[in-house]
Design goal:
about 475 residues, Rossmann fold, 5-stranded antiparallel sheet, single chain, 3 domains, Membrane-bound Lytic Murein Transglycosylase D, Chain A, Jelly Rolls, elongated, SGNH_hydro
Length: about 475
């Protein structure tokens, strides 16, 4: 359906060339109509066929994995897509979850994590230092004895199955669905509190309670025999009293294991579980958990890192090795903005993007792929970001050869000169790089519309 190859302005404008005072970058002039469509949709036939069967038979799960940078880590754009697709085709669970708060960063709202221990983290944007960064794209480790609580916030996300992803699928964690309070009894010396009366001396008080002056002084931290009326003293006695101590005890469950994760299944839906160390290790490393339920529908997994680029994912092979744990039917890739602000040329960006796509397909040969082009933005709140226009053109040029579909967000949002107009509509943040919460929500709505239109066309052609 492509009629041209570049997306540098909206459809009503025509320019010969545009020069921007950013290292003398000159952009191409070719323009394409910015209809909200996904191109090269034939590559999506396998996931559309599975979606059709889900719709007709009300059975099974479809796994969608959305990978990106900050707007995916915060689950803004992706959260809206999940909401709409699950409302239409069923909610099969919260999907991939990661304790971003324990890594001291932001994350989505759907799952709450708590822990009594401190955790160390390393994002994939940093140079490898030995931390085993995998599916979450953020390494998370602790050396402490810990309890990690996980609780879904909404009853619609109650789950039957939890899968735990660790480096090399090591058995590092036990799972408990509940804890019980254990009451322990012990004895301790009985202590009497005595209020000092006028005229009393330590010797008189010691004689009264059948103890010694030195014991009273020791128990109360007194350095001299001077005491003051109206104050209190703790008097140790030879008697013993019972004392109750309460503590929580977690009952580990029997975990099963496959080649990709450790997992637990419950016939009843759960809202909360605890992860515990299952043996003495020097370091416990968690790459994420996957929450599923028996109900048919969509599992929409999100993986994002603030500031991430394709090259950041590429430098950690474990990310791709663990991706099959999500059993992806569709992988959506939303990267490119951070590359543009590093001023990567289109050639450099496409090389990294292709390496990323090739790694995804090598580990998940039956997964379909959609690339969403990066959206329009400004350099220094003033100069149009021509790099994302170049990226978009090159993404579209090679989509057939590389076997992926494309959603041209750059054009749908208005192209190169759209930023200030989008800002007036409240769709962008003040930095003119990031979009507002409403802007990301609109992106999610527009992507969902394009995806469902492509699916409906598939159904028409299928008949």
């Amino acid at each position: 359906m492509l009629c041209c190859l570049a997306f540098y302005a909206n459809a009503s404008a025509q320019v010969d060339s545009v020069e921007v005072d950013m290292d003398s970058v000159v952009i191409d002039s070719t323009i394409i109509i910015s209809d909200n469509i996904i191109t090269n949709t034939s590559v999506l036939d396998p996931v559309f066929e599975k979606l059709f069967k889900l719709e007709q038979q009300k059975k099974g799960h479809i796994n969608i994995v959305h990978i990106g940078d900050s707007h995916i880590q915060a689950d803004l754009f992706s959260g809206k897509v999940r909401e709409e697709l699950q409302a239409k085709y069923g909610n099969a669970g919260a999907g991939f979850s990661f304790p971003y708060n324990l890594a001291k960063t932001n994350g989505g709202y759907k799952v709450k994590f708590t822990s009594n221990a401190s955790w160390e983290s390393r994002r994939n944007i940093y140079t490898p230092d030995g931390t085993e960064v995998g599916l979450s794209a953020i390494g998370l480790t602790t050396a402490e004895n810990f309890v990690l609580g996980l609780e879904v916030r909404d009853t619609s996300d109650y789950f039957n199955t939890i899968k735990i992803v660790t480096p090399h699928n090591s058995s590092l964690f036990d799972v408990a669905t509940s804890s019980k309070t254990i009451t322990l009894e012990s004895t301790e010396p009985k202590v009497i509190v005595h209020k000092i009366k006028s005229g009393e001396a330590l010797s008189i008080i010691a004689e009264k309670y059948n103890t010694s002056v030195s014991e009273i002084k020791k128990y109360n931290g007194l350095r001299s025999n001077n005491i003051r009326a109206g104050k209190t003293l703790k008097i140790p006695t030879g008697e013993k009293v019972k004392k109750e101590v309460q503590r929580s005890e977690f009952i580990p469950l029997d975990l099963q294991k496959d080649s990709l994760s450790s997992y637990y299944y419950s016939s009843e839906r759960l809202s909360k579980i605890y992860l515990l160390p299952n043996k003495q290790e020097k370091l416990y490393n968690l790459n994420g958990v996957i929450l599923e339920k028996d109900a048919p529908g969509i599992l929409y997994h999100t993986i994002g890192v603030n500031g991430a680029k394709c090259s950041d994912y590429n430098k950690y092979p474990m990310f791709f090795e663990q991706l099959p744990a999500l059993n992806p039917d569709l992988v959506i890739v939303s990267l490119g903005t951070n590359e543009s602000f590093d001023k990567l040329t289109a050639t450099e960006y496409i090389a990294q993007l292709n390496m990323f796509i090739d790694s995804v397909k090598a580990e998940n040969p039956y997964a379909c792929v959609i690339i969403t082009t990066p959206p329009p933005s400004l350099f220094k709140k003033k100069y149009p970001n021509t790099f994302v226009g170049d990226y978009t053109r090159n993404i579209l040029i090679q989509e057939t050869e590389k076997g992926y579909a494309t959603w041209n967000m750059f054009a749908v949002l208005g192209g190169l000169f759209s930023v200030n107009e989008n800002a007036k509509k409240g769709l962008m943040s003040s930095d003119r790089i990031h979009y507002s919460r409403e802007g990301y929500k609109q992106q999610g709505e527009q992507f969902t519309e394009a995806f469902l239109n492509a699916y409906n066309n598939f159904k028409l052609n299928r008949q």
